[in-house]
């Protein structure tokens, strides 16, 4: 989040939806107009999401007045959008049809009576006025302020054409420019629809039971703790916990998984998911603005406002490029007639053609359309990309590091072997479970689950002086004896003569099988070995294979587990590198090392204990964003389903987006260069100049739309 957005996200800031933005320039102009309104302290436009956030007090009327130059419509963020007329019926497009008809009639009149005939000239002038009056108003205002944007360039060019008697050319330029603006509007609307379709996923009201009464309640009025009744075939309006019933839910809208998931009492459910078969009663746990779906929409919109590096480059380039074109056009129109005795009319015409071809339309739109489209497509497929910068970074990745537990494996370890040396297995497991009750380690939960399954009453055992030994294990007093539970390494240090060779062999045998061995003992002897294993996810091996296939040079598995367990799992999964025995800060340092070596490194983790490493990587990817706020907040990309198989798709989409952005920028600049070269022999006509500009805008837009087609 930029500093300015952080400033605006205070409570007094208010967000409005804006309808009618055509280009990034107009959005910037609207932002400046709003900033100068009385009562407004600051304002920030999000062009990708068609929103403006205003800090201070103002009215919708005032905002619409500030956007009158482009006939913008403003509404409250929560209000339902007014259905827009179909593209072909929109008011701003109707004048284009009228001008086009007038242009054709005038052309025929010119053919019939000669180009200079008064009827033809009147027809052309009418076409120019009807098709271009809004353009002229903007152009003149900008000219007075010496603000040279596309409208200024076009106004000067068209009036210049009329002044030197090229009425037909002027009218053609007006119409082609209006068509190009309409197409730009259409393409941005199309790109934004991906978000708007997300907004319509969840119902706007729900059946709520309060006391003994059931009623339909709008989502804004539903409170945390209300009971929501969801019938088969209905979508959930709110996030919550199932308190009654069992059903399968289609969660594709949130996680991108097409396979329905079974939900029963105690399970978390999300707004926007579809209840397929059973009747569910759900206790609402979040207000409407805090639901996972609302967060996704908010994050996607924020992401589309973030400038990608290539967009920042284009904006900087356009800032210097437009004035340079104006100066060049002016010199071209004036120097040959003044110093070489050339024909004024011809060189003014050439200067005007340079103005038109210099219009940076296609260039300015080349990046945002691609980014808005790609991020929208990703969100529909259950991948949240938090900004254009991460989209571009993911496209240039060469190395991906994975946390092992919960990412490549299921993260639910279970006890596979218990080997005792001194004492009864049940007794030793009871002591171990009682001690581990105080530990936060995932392996502790495996021991506790095993003790519960075996019906051991470890909760009755009194544990004193519990202490954690960072990265190695825990110790505590039970029945006045000090016990240690931890890694074999801990006992190598603890026992006066280290671990006996036959116990070492047993540990090694278990580790070779990919199991993690925990040791229970005292300062004098080892009492038992407990082997724990974590199952590999079915998708892990296939995902690693696909990543290598799409050109990821190196995949690294990072784990706090011992080397042998790590190698057993790493080999099964197929990663190219394995780093074991890592503490959280080691992971962090290793990611920094990788960054120094390879520049661009992704870290994939579950977002909680991996937060430092996720933050240190170029692109942090969190698993299972649905339901975990930490993952949504710390990661740059969140895979909403707890499923790695979305990762190759994300890389593919990012690479495609990167390629398309490069193509767009190269093509826009190439067309400009080519058109400017045509000036030398005098082949660049006004209509050809605008045609080149319009064609470039259209091609760049259609090229970006290809990102909607990227599938898993």
Describe the structure.
The protein is of the alpha+beta class and 712 residues long. It is 51% helix and 18% strand. It has a seven-stranded mixed beta sheet, sandwiched between helices. The chain has a six-stranded antiparallel beta sheet with strand order 6-5-7-13-8-11, with no helix packed on it. Strands 16-21-20-19-18-17 form a six-stranded antiparallel beta sheet, sandwiched between helices. Helix 22 (611-616) links the parallel strand 24 and strand 25 (619-623). Helix 5 (118-144) packs across helix 7, helix 9 packs antiparallel against helix 12 (361-380) and helix 13 (388-395) packs across helix 24. It starts with a helix and ends in a 7-residue tail after the last helix. The mean pLDDT is 82.
Layout of strands and helices, then pairs:
Elements: H1 3-8, E1 13-19, H2 24-35, E2 40-46, E3 51-56, H3 60-66, E4 73-76, H4 91-113, H5 118-144, H6 150-163, H7 167-199, E5 205-210, E6 213-218, E7 227-230, E8 240-244, E9 247-250, H8 252-255, E10 261-263, E11 268-269, E12 274-275, E13 280-284, H9 292-305, H10 309-340, H11 344-357, H12 361-380, E14 383-385, H13 388-395, E15 399-403, H14 404-408, E16 414-420, H15 425-436, H16 442-453, E17 463-469, E18 473-478, E19 481-486, H17 488-494, H18 501-512, E20 516-521, E21 526-533, H19 540-549, E22 554-558, H20 563-573, E23 577-579, H21 584-598, E24 601-605, H22 611-616, E25 619-623, H23 629-634, E26 637-639, H24 646-677, H25 686-705
Parallel strand pairs: 15-22, 15-24, 22-23, 24-25, 25-26
Antiparallel strand pairs: 1-3, 1-4, 2-3, 5-6, 5-7, 7-13, 8-11, 8-13, 9-10, 9-12, 14-26, 16-21, 17-18, 18-19, 19-20, 20-21
């Amino acid at each position: 989040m930029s500093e300015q957005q952080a400033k605006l996200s205070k409570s007094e800031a208010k967000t409005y939806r804006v309808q009618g933005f055509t280009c990034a320039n107009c959005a910037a102009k609207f932002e400046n107009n709003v900033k100068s309104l009385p009562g407004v302290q600051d304002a920030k436009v999000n062009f990708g999401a068609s929103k403006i956030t205003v800090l201070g007090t103002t009215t919708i009327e005032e905002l619409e007045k500030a956007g009158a130059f482009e006939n913008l419509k403003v509404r409250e963020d929560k209000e339902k959008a007014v259905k827009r007329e179909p593209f072909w019926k929109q008011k701003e497009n109707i004048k284009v049809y009228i001008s086009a008809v007038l242009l054709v009639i005038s052309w025929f009149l010119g053919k019939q009576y000669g180009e200079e005939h008064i009827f033809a000239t009147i027809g052309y002038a009418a076409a120019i006025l009807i098709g271009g009056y809004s353009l002229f108003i903007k152009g003149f205002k900008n000219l007075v302020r010496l603000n040279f944007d596309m409208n200024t360039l076009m106004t000067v060019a068209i009036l210049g054409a009329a002044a030197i008697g090229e009425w037909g050319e002027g009218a053609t330029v007006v119409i082609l420019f209006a068509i190009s603006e309409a197409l730009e509007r259409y393409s941005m609307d199309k790109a934004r629809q991906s978000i708007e379709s997300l907004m319509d996923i969840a119902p706007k009201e729900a059946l709520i039971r309060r006391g003994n009464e059931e009623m339909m309640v709008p989502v804004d009025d539903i409170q945390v703790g209300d009971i929501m009744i969801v019938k088969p075939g209905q979508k959930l309006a709110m996030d919550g916990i199932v308190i009654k019933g069992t059903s399968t839910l289609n969660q594709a809208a949130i996680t991108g998984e097409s396979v329905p998931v079974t939900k029963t009492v105690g399970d978390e459910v999300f707004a926007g998911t579809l209840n397929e078969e059973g009747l569910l009663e759900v206790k609402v746990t979040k207000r409407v603005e805090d639901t996972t779906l609302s967060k996704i929409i908010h994050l996607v919109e924020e992401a589309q406002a973030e400038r990608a590096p290539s967009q920042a480059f284009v904006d900087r380039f356009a800032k210097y490029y437009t004035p340079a074109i104006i100066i060049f056009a002016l010199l071209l129109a004036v120097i040959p007639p003044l110093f070489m005795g050339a024909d004024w009319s011809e060189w003014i015409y050439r200067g005007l053609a340079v103005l038109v071809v210099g219009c940076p339309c296609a260039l300015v739109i080349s990046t945002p359309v691609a980014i808005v489209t790609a991020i929208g497509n990703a969100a529909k497929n259950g991948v949240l990309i938090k900004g254009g910068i991460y989209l571009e970074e993911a496209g240039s990745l060469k190395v991906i590091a994975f946390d092992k537990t919960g990412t490549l494996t299921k993260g639910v370890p279970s006890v596979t072997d218990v080997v005792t040396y001194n004492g009864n297995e049940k007794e030793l497991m009871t002591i171990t479970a009682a001690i581990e009750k105080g530990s936060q380690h995932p392996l502790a939960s495996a021991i506790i689950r095993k003790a519960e399954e075996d019906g051991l009453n470890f909760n009755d055992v009194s544990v004193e002086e519990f202490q954690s030994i960072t990265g190695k294990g825990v110790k505590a007093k039970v029945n006045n004896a000090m016990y240690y539970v931890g890694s074999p390494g801990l006992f190598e240090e603890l026992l006066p003569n280290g671990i006996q060779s036959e116990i070492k062999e047993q540990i090694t045998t278990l580790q070779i099988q990919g199991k993690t061995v925990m040791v229970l003992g005292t300062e004098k002897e080892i009492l038992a070995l407990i082997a724990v294993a974590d199952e590999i996810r079915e998708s892990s091996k296939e995902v690693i294979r696909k990543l290598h296939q799409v050109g990821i040079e190196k995949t690294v598995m990072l784990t706090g587990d011992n080397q042998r367990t790590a190698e057993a799992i790493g080999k099964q999964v197929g990663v190219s590198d394995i780093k074991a025995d890592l503490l959280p800060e080691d992971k962090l340092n290793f990611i920094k090392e990788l960054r120094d070596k390879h520049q661009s490194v992704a870290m994939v983790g579950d977002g909680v204990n991996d937060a430092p490493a996720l933050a240190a990587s170029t692109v942090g990817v969190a698993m299972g964003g649905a339901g975990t706020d930490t993952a949504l907040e710390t990661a740059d990309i969140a895979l909403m389903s707890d499923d790695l198989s979305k990762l190759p798709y994300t890389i593919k989409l990012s690479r495609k987006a990167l390629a398309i952005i490069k193509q767009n920028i190269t093509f826009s600049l190439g067309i400009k260069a080519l058109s400017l070269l045509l000036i030398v022999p005098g082949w660049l006509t006004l209509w050809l100049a605008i045609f080149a500009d319009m064609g470039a805008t259209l091609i760049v837009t259609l090229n970006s739309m290809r990102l909607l087609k990227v599938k898993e």
